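INTERNAL TRANSFER SHEET
From: sequence group
To: structure group
Subject: galactinol--sucrose galactosyltransferase

Please process the attached sequence and return the structure record in the designated field. Keep the field labels unchanged so the import script can parse them.
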Amino acid sequence: MTITKTVRVSDRKLVIKDRTVLSGVPDNVISSSAVSSGPVDGIFLGTQFSVPSCRHVVSLGTLRDVRFLASFRFKLWWMAQKMGDQGRDIPHETQFLLLESKDGSQLTAMDGSGSSSRSDEIAYTVFLPLVEGPFRACLQGNSRDELELCLESGDDDTKSASFSHVLFVGAASSDPFAAISGAIDAVKSRLKSFRHRSDKKLPGVVDYFGWCTWDAFYQDVTQEGVEAGLRSLTAGGAPPRFVIIDDGWQSVGSDQSAEEPEKPSPLLRLTGIKENGKFQSKEDPAAGIKTIVQTAKDKYGLKYVYVWHAITGYWGGVRPGVEGMEDYNSKMQYPKVSPGVVENEPGMKTDVLTMQGLGLVHPKSVYKFYNELHRYLAAAGIDGVKVDVQCILETLGAGHGGRVELTRQYHRALDASIAKNFPDNGCIACMSHNTDALYWSVLLPLDFR
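Return from structure group:
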């Protein structure tokens, strides 16, 4: 007895439950079976090229008249959704794709005689582009209604021509949620680099109402402003139980000397791990940020106080050579933005980060940086951190083995420091909607944007 797999590539077609979803699949696209979990059957797709490169784009075949939902990055930092029914409608930087076929669709079903016929059965298909070695994959459409797979390392010196498991394709008969869950299970089993949120320790803040200072103050936050906000919320009958002191508490500065004429919008960089003067009280400056932490907890009954920092320290990174921070081995690096991101967000070509560069802590020194920063904060009574600007790492992989490798090293260091200094797993991930980060998330449980 021969059992036909639900998902397969046959005769240059991607077939789901005997329906052709993609036609004209190129010969250099190869498939291998995936271990099924629950109701999901699936395959991994790979591809081969004649010449190694740091970036490849390959067609997976033609997609027409099939309803889909795509989650794609409309900006470097964040995802949004888009619906359509043609390959050309699929945006650049698509990281998740769900196809639906049902009665009335144009998908072709094959009957026992080999003739085409309609089928009323709903079938959901999940496409998950993955990371493989130093490369990260995403999907996009073109004007010929072809679904394309884009592979990038982000480093001109990190090249490959052969990929075996860069895209998972899985399907379930009628339940899209089962299809998605099963697809994630299959990918987790393959990559072994991330855990489900349900398997991670959730920090205590998820059980309480709280307040983030960003919308009230932006970078002009002060300890007096934080207390005023807590006082106002309490007086209004909505006492918070946690606060996130967002951007504005750190010691930062620009690269300009006092003699230089001021540049428009100079990018600020971290110049020390301790708080700035706005968070040093006149009565006891040495207490630093501990003063507002004690006020929040003792006077207003807060259970948790978090603070913000970028995954690179600050927006412009850590200023190279600054006194007291030499051990972090920060060096200037200029972001190399993916063509797919630029397609969706052209402004990144002239963004202040792209133009003025970033002081990148060397990956071998980043655990030391995180640990010393977090240890100082924990000693002041801080319970956790909101780690922002995470997707910037994908643009800084040159000279470090590529975007995936740099992200992996930074996230391993961050996970280790969080586990050591904030045992409640006190970390919120922010601006982190790329699969480089998502598929290397072992401890971090939350992404609020």
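Handover comment: Residues 7-103+121-192 form one domain. DSSP finds nine helices and 26 strands in the chain.
Transfer complete.
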